[in-house]
Amino acid sequence: MVTRLLLFVVLLLPNFVSCSDAVDFLYNGFRGANLTLDGTAAVTSDGLLRLTNATMPEKSHAFYPDPVRFKINRSSGGASSFSSTFVFGIVPEFSGLMSGHGIALVLSPTQDFHTAIGSQYMGLFNLSSNGKPFNHVVAVELDTVQNPEFSDINANHVGVDIDGMSSITSQRAGYYVNGELQNLNLTSGNSFQAWVEYDGESNQLNVTIAPMGMIKPATPLLSRAINLSRVIFEHMYVGFSSSSDTFRTIHYIQGWSFMTNGTARELDLASLPRLPRRRRKKNPIALVIGLPAGALVAVLAMASALVVVLRRRARFSQMLEDWELAYGPQRFQYRDLYKATQGFRDAEVLGAGGSGTVYRGVLASSKEEVAIKRVCHGSRQGMRAFVAEVACLGRVRHRNLVRLLGYCRREGEFLLVYDFMPNGSLDKFLFDRRSSTLGWSCRFGIIRGVASGLLYLHEEWEQVVIHRDVKASNVLLDGDFNGRLGDFGLARLYDRGTDPQTTHVVGTMGYLAPEIPRTGKSTKATDVFAFGVFLLEVACGRRPVEPRAAEDEVLLVDWVLACWSRGEILEAADPRLGGAYVTEEMEMVLKLGLLCCDPLPAARPGIRRAVQILCGDVPLPKFSSNYLNSSVMALLENEVFGGVSLEEYPVNSDTVSFLSASRH
Ligand SMILES: *[C@@H]1O[C@H](CO)[C@@H](O)[C@H](O)[C@H]1NC(C)=O
Ligand SMILES: *[C@@H]1O[C@H](CO)[C@@H](O)[C@H](O)[C@H]1NC(C)=O
Ligand SMILES: *[C@@H]1O[C@H](CO)[C@@H](O)[C@H](O)[C@H]1NC(C)=O
Ligand SMILES: *[C@@H]1O[C@H](CO)[C@@H](O)[C@H](O)[C@H]1NC(C)=O
Ligand SMILES: *[C@@H]1O[C@H](CO)[C@@H](O)[C@H](O)[C@H]1NC(C)=O
Ligand SMILES: *[C@@H]1O[C@H](CO)[C@@H](O)[C@H](O)[C@H]1NC(C)=O
Ligand SMILES: *[C@@H]1O[C@H](CO)[C@@H](O)[C@H](O)[C@H]1NC(C)=O
Ligand SMILES: *[C@@H]1O[C@H](CO)[C@@H](O)[C@H](O)[C@H]1NC(C)=O
């Protein structure tokens, strides 16, 4: 008996001593669990930890409430071993197309992520903090969107992220059986188990995933030698981070166990809360058939109700085809948009142009302010491809791009829903003498912002997006006067009622690169040309074409060039600035504008180079005013206008389009 008791104590003692600092917790479901939640994270009544549920870009976090000790001595020694396992499920509302961004298991010195961005940053970093060693964040990501800016390998992978979203190692989701990688589909809506293990002695981090119920595969999916001591502080919080997007995806954690200095306890899989079954739409017809035939009165009442409903329907009718169901949350109900704008009242009109009328609205569901653009379209040809494009562009997220929230289709009409920008468009501040103007630092900030937005479209997003219509009136200002480029990729739509197959030139007079009428194609270089004109507009406070000006001042590009040839380029600066600008910046913007307007596409800088120049990372290449001499400009003028007098074109900010064939 005594020996038994002794043995008991001996067995308990070392355990107890090392446990004083070691952390060990286990959640078989989260009912009543004390976690620190933020964003959309919540524990459901079933005990599921639901990280996201929104159709809006949201971020959410769920942390174990107390900091976990990872080092015994603050100033020396390596990080402790740790091990964790959890069961998760990612349930996209509409399978197949697009989903939210996934889940990450996170070790972080803080639980406060209010400055982080959701979407592709998974609620962990923002543009300036991403990749910076001061973060001290270790994350294991289950990533379901491919973000080329982080060199993601595909839209279904597992990666290890240190201080930034570019993984130090990653692998397509799967598990090894006899050395062969079996694929897993993270967004299939099924439950999977993940194991994350770090050995503080050998400095090895292993990540393994498998379908729930399978025993842990012997070979980890990822195994990486890394000394986390540099990253991990003495105390860190552990938890999950997730972000959703316009496509409703629900990220669930069903159970979680964690331990420092040991192997995390096994989850009791049988007792974990189940993922909810996917809802199927009920068939209302079944209900009607089920009614007893005798209830004639009821049927009559229903019939008259039906008439009312049908009448209402006609008013709110919208076009919807089977394939569109997949676009889910990107598709708005016409009824909702009608209500949001109080029936498209004139009082709600924000602006009208060649491309359509824009209304202000407030969505009843979210109380969110939006801008709704109504565009006419005639043909239904190519509509499917076009809607796919809209859905795709709806996923573009950048702080210098106006977010496209979704669309709605009606007979002969297309509605696009955007984020509302309280300060309206930039052209008002530049050209409207009744409006106050913007100072130079604000203008320079807008220029840099627009450049970075365009860079994102051209080179950093998953597909190359050609804007096709860069101009001051397409630059909108948010509450803080940050410039955001709107209407990207969509200029083709405004080419109303025509066959999308024929080559059309789309853009706005004065911003069109000279090669466009010849080739009929918009390219990155034509966007850069328009960006160059935009730079001059902002610096000079003048429209690109002023038909009423003296002959040699009609074209803005020509005029700036003439000022430079006289050796007085600063004369081109907007007089409304009253000389209050940084001379070097003004000169750089004017010259860069001219460089981007080079008639030869190959001579224009790429947008990345333009951004580097604007940020002062790279000096402006040396070139003189002769380089773009006026004879070349004359050629440009002839090509653009093809001998047609200017009066035939609307030279305001409206988008115009014309058939290239008719000009040659
Ligand atoms: C983990 O175990 C090592 C070796 O036994 C010990 O030095 C360290 O203090 C332990 N760490 C924690 C957090 O308990
Ligand atoms: C949850 O944990 C925190 C941190 O340990 C503690 O302060 C708080 O009292 C706990 N809340 C409940 C309801 O147990
Ligand atoms: C999503 O979360 C919000 C905030 O936690 C909640 O109000 C809303 O009811 C949830 N929506 C669904 C569909 O569960
Ligand atoms: C922590 O490390 C420092 C420097 O190596 C050493 O002087 C100190 O005694 C250590 N403290 C503990 C509690 O081990
Ligand atoms: C890991 O880094 C820590 C701190 O930089 C150092 O003390 C430790 O010796 C390193 N471990 C190995 C195995 O290199
Ligand atoms: C993953 O599963 C979803 C839902 O079943 C399916 O729509 C999608 O195509 C699958 N993805 C891959 C890469 O197999
Ligand atoms: C980005 O995150 C860092 C660190 O969390 C924070 O200090 C900084 O203010 C954030 N920047 C922005 C623009 O929110
Ligand atoms: C990681 O995986 C390797 C290779 O399978 C294995 O030898 C090692 O023990 C594992 N380390 C941990 C911490 O699980």
Explain how this protein is built.
The chain has 13 helices and 27 strands. It is α+β, with helices and mostly antiparallel strands. The protein has 3 domains: 249 residues, Sandwich (Jelly Rolls), CATH 2.60.120; 98 residues, Phosphorylase Kinase, domain 1; 238 residues, Transferase(Phosphotransferase) domain 1 (Transferase(Phosphotransferase), domain 1). Strands 1, 3, 4, 7, 14, 15, 16 and 18 form an 8-stranded antiparallel β-sheet that branches. Strand 14 and strand 15 form a beta hairpin. It is globular, with a radius of gyration of 30 Å. The relative contact order is 0.09. The N terminus and C terminus are likely disordered. Bound molecules: 2-acetamido-2-deoxy-beta-D-glucopyranose (8 copies). One 2-acetamido-2-deoxy-beta-D-glucopyranose binds next to loops. It is found in: Cell membrane. In the N-terminal section; belongs to the leguminous lectin family. In the C-terminal section; belongs to the protein kinase superfamily. Ser/Thr protein kinase family.
